[in-house]
From TrEMBL:
The keyword Acyltransferase belongs to this UniProt entry's keyword annotation: no
GO molecular-function term, one example from the UniProt record: acyl-CoA dehydrogenase activity
Protein name: Acyl-CoA dehydrogenase
PROSITE patterns noted in UniProt: ACYL_COA_DH_2
Organism per entry: Dysosmobacter welbionis
């Protein structure tokens, strides 16, 4: 067992750390304040090959493995969790199911668009009455000659109002429950596709979240992803991979908060010495460092298992659960070290704490992760 990162993975981390320091950090506060999608940085991430980095080279990607993608999301999220989220969704929830389940024609058409073509991807599963109970979605797809007609709406869609390509789940046979759900590749230009409400959120202000509405939306028959009735499994498998991305995002948020707090406490003098010299501060940092190490091991383990083509459902759920709770705890404790300053927008801690909260909710709440873990430990 080798716990060292390969040279390639170390280079990926170095490249992304530099990008984060030079391009992401300077605009992170403004992105949060203005709720602006960080378009220029996403374009640069396309140019660097990070958007769609796991897409095989023959389809325009970098042919990177899931660990490399996780490292990128972790580094970006140290300074801007919104940017990490946009990349995680594009790579894990849109490119990945097309790589895994797409036909040769689908891969040849859509993967180059999602890499060299700079088109952003999204994933549409959640509905107003189908959140944790994802199988209860009401969006329907009816076959009509050479196309399907989709009707319904999806909510909380990350990249919703900037994406061009959507992996969408809809019922093709309501009588069959989870086995009546199918997956489709839908373009925003298809007739009957529209973007509904833009969400105003507590955090992740740079990550565009929207409702997606299908009104007699015409989807060519050849855009069925995988077989009819296999959509729920595709959704679950995709979310297994997506949860590695959210674990990496949460880990990055925690690491970023800890870095900020360490720098601050070394310079903040109270009672005659830097507050980093008080044992209470040091013990808090010791716990944070230990939890980051544990979260990193869980996350990288899940990513390596995915890269090896092994089952990683339980490991991804554990990584996401652990890292998201770590992010929430760490941002809270780090903010506390700043005292009143931490509660202001002069420092990034209040943003990091707001951003951390969503990692306990989306791509399966912490409760759902416990359902998945308990269902996979032989009970
Ligand atoms: N991999 C492969 N197959 C899986 C699987 C997995 N990880 N998990 C379940 N399945 C299969 C089962 O084997 C079963 O197959 P059979 O029909 O052959 O028996 C089928 O799927 C149904 O499984 P369950 O009976 O376990 O399904 P369930 O209805 O009880 O739901 C659940 C299970 C884990 C609770 C699931 O509903 C779930 O993960 N819920 C959370 C959904 C979620 O994370 N939503 C966030 C989406 S993100 C989004 O939409 C917006 C965005 O942009 C971020």
């Amino acid at each position: 067992m080798d716990f060292n990162l390969s040279r390639e993975h170390q280079l990926v981390r170095k490249m992304m750390a530099e990008f984060t320091e030079n391009e992401v950090k300077p605009i992170a506060a403004e992105t949060d304040k203005t709720s602006q999608y960080p378009r220029e940085n996403i374009e640069k991430l396309f140019n660097l090959g990070v958007m769609g980095m796991c897409v095989p080279k023959e389809y325009g990607g970098a042919g990177a493995d899931p660990l490399a993608s996780a490292i990128c999301i972790e580094e970006l999220s140290k300074q801007c969790a919104s940017t990490g989220d946009i990349v995680a969704t594009h790579n894990g929830l849109c490119c990945d199911p097309i790589i895994t389940h797409g036909t040769e024609a689908q891969k040849a058409k859509y993967l180059p668009m999602l890499t060299k073509g700079h088109k952003v991807g999204a994933f549409c599963l959640t509905e107003s009455d189908a959140g944790s109970d994802a199988a209860k979605g009401q969006t329907e797809a009816k076959l009509d000659g050479d196309h399907y007609v989709l009707n319904g709406s999806k909510i909380f869609i990350t990249n919703g109002y900037v994406a061009d390509v959507f992996v969408v789940f809809a019922m093709t046979d309501k009588s069959k429950g989870t086995r009546g759900i199918s997956a489709f590749i839908v373009e925003s230009s298809f007739p009957g596709f529209s973007v509904g409400k833009h969400e105003e959120k507590m955090g992740l202000h740079g990550s565009p979240t929207a409702e997606i509405v299908f009104t007699d939306c015409i989807v060519p028959k050849e855009n069925l992803l995988g077989q009819e009735g296999k959509g729920f499994k595709i959704a679950m498998q995709t979310l297994d991979g997506g949860r590695i991305g959210i674990a990496a995002q949460a880990l990055g948020i925690a690491e970023g908060a800890m870095e900020e707090a360490m720098a601050y406490t070394k310079g903040r003098v109270q009672f005659g010495k830097p507050i980093s010299k008080f044992q209470n501060t040091q013990f808090t940092f010791a716990d944070m460092a230990m939890r980051s190490e544990a979260g990193r091991l869980l996350t990288y383990q899940a990513a390596v298992l995915k890269g090896e083509g092994k089952r990683f459902t339980k490991e991804a759920a554990m990584a996401k659960l652990f890292c998201s709770e770590h992010a929430m705890l760490t941002t809270t404790k780090a903010l506390q070290m700043f005292g009143g300053y931490g509660y202001t927008k002069d420092y990034p801690l209040e943003r990091m704490m707001r951003d951390a909260k969503i990692t306990e909710i989306y791509e399966g709440t912490s409760e759902i992760q416990r359902v998945v873990i308990s269902g996979n430990i032989g009970l």
